[in-house]
Amino acid sequence: MNVNTIDTCINKYGRSVYITDDGWNSKIYNAFVQPLRYKNKMYLSGSFNELGHYGEGYYLYIGPAKENFDNLSKRALLHTADGMSYKIERYEKIFLKEKPLYIWAVIKRRE
Hints:
single chain, mainly beta, six-stranded antiparallel β-barrel, about 10% helix
């Protein structure tokens, strides 16, 4: 497993997203945005519903390492092509040795 393999998978199968932060817009890139499932219960304090995910609007984000969240403000929002907006609740860089592979985040849908 290497960065190129992960980036290829994200680019091929991910959704179009972009970030806004105080008047700044990122370029459009691909990332995975999926509802958090029951097994991810350790990451938040929502409640399980019959569909198998939390009904409080939490989602899992997996995106390319080059789209770093470190310099974003607390007001930054992630947007998807279908018009949904999400607040970044927490994120981590996932590494292979010293090289970042991807960004993992819990995001919350903004009403």
